[in-house]
Amino acid sequence: MSIRPSLAILAGAVVVAAGGYAYGASTAGGFVAGLEDDAAQAIAEAGGSGVSARFANRNGSPTRHPLLSGGEKLDEQTRARVAEAVSSVAGVGGVVWSDGTVRAESDAPSFEPLHCQEDVDGLLRSRSIRFEEASSALLPASGVLLDEVADALRPCLGAIISITGHTDKSGTEPGNLALSMERARAVREALVRRGIPRDGLRARGVGSSEPVEGLAPGDPANRRIEFAVIRTEPLRPTPVDTPGAR
After folding, report:
1. What is the CB neighbour count within 10 angstroms for residue 244?
2. pLDDT digits over 173-185, tens only?
3. What is the rounded distance in angstroms from the CA atom of residue 193 to the CA atom of residue 196?
4. What is the CATH number of domain 113-232?
């Protein structure tokens, strides 16, 4: 008799998950479409007639590491200039030709982690991500703030972003740890639905162990979510990426 409600709940969860995945895929696709346009312009300005940049991996998923093809008749200097021009486009990662002969990477990351950190800190300075009492359910009013946080983090794609949940001292510490972790995970999933790749997000909960400096441990203001851009992913050449005989 209780099977039908369970099946309904399961079906609803599948629909929600599918919708979240579709939203994330469509958002990532839009981001890559912008990179494709900018890369095409950079290729033209660098003299790369006949060259195209494909922003998709072998599985067809969007990626910011393009594969250049065409331009077989171009000299090596022009090919190198084209690759460097594409790699300098904001948001683009490592660039490689389809034959593996030239790989270009920017001398500096194409995003500014510290700038993103400052933008997110600024958003959270006067507002906070709020949840239902003693719950990890986000209040609807936090949706707008999460939209803004996702926009601020988007230039840092390729970095590892830490999401840390905090509580105040009320309640037992095991309960505080569990709740802070659940809230950090809820924020992570909210960002994934807004197009931030899951593999760059790390959720953790610290309970009440790290109160805001100058506040008493029991102060409600200690209930918060903090973000930290903790490192950028190194782009290391693989055998297929390294120059080889043509």
Report:
1. 10
2. 999 999 999 999 9
3. 7
4. 3.30.1330.60
